[in-house]
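hey team, just a heads up i'm posting the complex here instead of the shared drive bc the drive is being weird again. everything in one block, sequence lines first with there labels, then the predicted structure for the whole assembly after. its three chains so it's a bit long, scroll down
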Amino acid sequence: MTAIPRNHWYVAAYSREIGGELFARTICGEPVLFWRTRDGSVTAMPDRCVHRRFPLSQPPSRLVDDQVICGYHGFTYGADGKCVSVPGQTRIPRTARLTPYPVVEQDSFVWIFIGDPANADPARVPRASCLDSPGYTTVAGMEPLRARYSLLVDNLLDLSHETYLHGGYIGTPEVASTPITTEVDEDAGIVYVSRHMDDAECPPFYAKSTGLQGRITRWQDIEYTPPCLYKLHSRIAPAGCVPRPDGSDPDAFHVEVVYAITPETEHTTHDFWAVARDFALDDEEVSAFLAESNRTVVLQDVEALDVLERVIATEPPGYQELSINIDTGGLAARRLLQRMVTS
Amino acid sequence: MTAIPRNHWYVAAYSREIGGELFARTICGEPVLFWRTRDGSVTAMPDRCVHRRFPLSQPPSRLVDDQVICGYHGFTYGADGKCVSVPGQTRIPRTARLTPYPVVEQDSFVWIFIGDPANADPARVPRASCLDSPGYTTVAGMEPLRARYSLLVDNLLDLSHETYLHGGYIGTPEVASTPITTEVDEDAGIVYVSRHMDDAECPPFYAKSTGLQGRITRWQDIEYTPPCLYKLHSRIAPAGCVPRPDGSDPDAFHVEVVYAITPETEHTTHDFWAVARDFALDDEEVSAFLAESNRTVVLQDVEALDVLERVIATEPPGYQELSINIDTGGLAARRLLQRMVTS
Amino acid sequence: MTAIPRNHWYVAAYSREIGGELFARTICGEPVLFWRTRDGSVTAMPDRCVHRRFPLSQPPSRLVDDQVICGYHGFTYGADGKCVSVPGQTRIPRTARLTPYPVVEQDSFVWIFIGDPANADPARVPRASCLDSPGYTTVAGMEPLRARYSLLVDNLLDLSHETYLHGGYIGTPEVASTPITTEVDEDAGIVYVSRHMDDAECPPFYAKSTGLQGRITRWQDIEYTPPCLYKLHSRIAPAGCVPRPDGSDPDAFHVEVVYAITPETEHTTHDFWAVARDFALDDEEVSAFLAESNRTVVLQDVEALDVLERVIATEPPGYQELSINIDTGGLAARRLLQRMVTS
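-- predicted structure starts here --
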């Protein structure tokens, strides 16, 4: 099991979740208050008044003219976290301020930096540009997971579970039976896991959304940038169809399945998921089908991982798992995460 | 945060709560069994059979002729806690006795001494005589608080929160904006906090109960006798009206707001509240209004303090609050409580 | 309080509970998976895949042809616990196996050995042959107890509680008032507690089932084989009626009340109960009455012991009980259990 790396960027929310009202979410064990200021930017600060720790998101706390007024004793803060008013006196203590969190809005997400703000480099926020690109249509959601985030990392890095846990949705026998290749870019800190099935059954998830009939070529190319961003580049095409020599791939369907894996606490996780496709861009039926199907798949994972969390809670210390070839990606991810925690 | 002082008197119940039936309440972490004996006095003893710790308040335990019979094996105790019968033998072990708690009934409360009974001095039970005086009419209640008692002490010693948490009930802008004076009687162990508003808005709580219209003079004089008894001497009068030179004050309305702050456990509290008035003594509408309004205000506190308890439970160790002038009373109270715990 | 002895046999289930479907139950803190193989024998193994600890009883895990397939990644195990298939590779790691638990089916129970299987001697499974004998008719059930198993041992070894907790069902004044005799067979590790009432009221439990009217002779002979098997040999006859010199006892009614006391966790217990009678063997009304009555009695115990577990959870360390003559059997049982834990 892995602790939570600090001094990293995490997805806190979808941009659309944060508007002109107070919004609270716990990220990596830290309660955070968000709102979108009148100039359109997202502000983030600790959700806890400096005075008596009352949550600034808790009514009757309220937002007035880009200032948040604590509902307990009226301490008032600007969008920069500085206290501008306290009750019963005009002098405001110098230390009456909340340290804002660095925030970046990018690719439909609100990213937040957890750790020392001096270490926050916006250029290091990893990209998921397909989620906000005119070439793709995206459906997305977030499910709360009552399990530690490392269980979700394990889950997503080893897709052989699709055959068993998601049979009838996205799993077919070939996923579990086809070997994977794993590569780790140690410098960039990225884990790649690939599984290319050249002659596979087409699961309902892709058959209904693409209209393909018969056997398919199915490529799963995972790119995991720890701790938070997971992308599955999925390529579906009629069996035997390969990209052209010039790199174009007009006869294939491409789906980017993106997860943002954000620890809420040591034992709970925000499971953000998105499915972006490069076909049937305006077909709302396809959008509705993919949203419903992927949410079902995510909830199957949630149910299984919630069970695993409870299993871990009651097992004796020192329990040893057994790992095999399918786990090389997950083990590499654990190693990178462990390095992030201890470095 | 403050631990619970022992060797002190605490309010266990209202006198009216304890009659000829078994009554159980946990006080300062100790489960206590009460009943009113046939001679009219209240008896209190540990709510736990000496044999196998079965609660004597738990059916089928029952009270017969001022003796309580344990529902598990029939150990039977008199009102003095001495065991008078055990199953299967006539000899009763010398140690088969429950040590009664010292109890005082006074000012509508049942007070109990938690600690070494040898230290219990009934003369040291603090007074709230208005609650049982013909010159006053009182409404009262008790709300369970899922927060440590020190959070309620903080809350009541700093009434600037009325403006924010109790706006529309008892809070007006002047409460938060008017400075306080704080005094501590170190010998008697009493904290006094006063806030005199000479020209203030009249909140609905007082406007509807007194019939006053327009601006008012509003005095809040707090007298807190740690650990348990809090009294707010509240004076409401037309703006500009002061007591006469002889001390009489016929044009003002006086309300005594009394709280008894009794720890149930380390993290839960019995929040006893009472409102005694010296006007409209026989007006049941005023009684109903004040009871309903004060209960609403107490429940607003309960909701806020329950939130704070959960905030504290998840925060990292060593978290530091920021205190300002309004907190001088609360900080003095914490200091006296801390002295009680360590002395 | 006593920890859980290992290297002992425990009742895991009634034989009738385990058929051709996956069945899970936690025994002594260990999650165990059971099923009845096609050859009719019961198999038991850890309910946790060696790979990523997914419970093999948790859907979509499933049983196919006496092999269980993990619902997460498809690891597949035979009835002997050996893994026969893993995803993505043909080589099966040598360590991919679950160690089966020794199991014995006897006297209507499935017994399981918790500890080192090398120590499991089927000849040491204690007998309750009346439960599976043509001379008796048995009703049985199991109730979950949210209390440590030692509280149930205390309860059953001291039946004086019948008078108070089970008055109106199986308790009468004579149970509590009649002294007991206690014997311990140190070599066999068995505690015997006897109470013979020669002239007693007949409780409804026996009056309605036997049809006896008037005063009775009632013998309670307890035989407890720690940790799991408790038998109460109950003899009911018209007052004054004793067994004949040849040992036959044709005018008495005999009831064997059997409990299997199996820890689920440190703080919860499986409370198996059975009532076997040697009269009215085919009378379904008597069966229904005894089943309903004994279940009611067990639930009265469950309610009381669940309360005691909560009492213990909140009491200060070092709390001392007081024991008297009725407790000699319970104290002997505690001593044998303690010896089992430390030996």
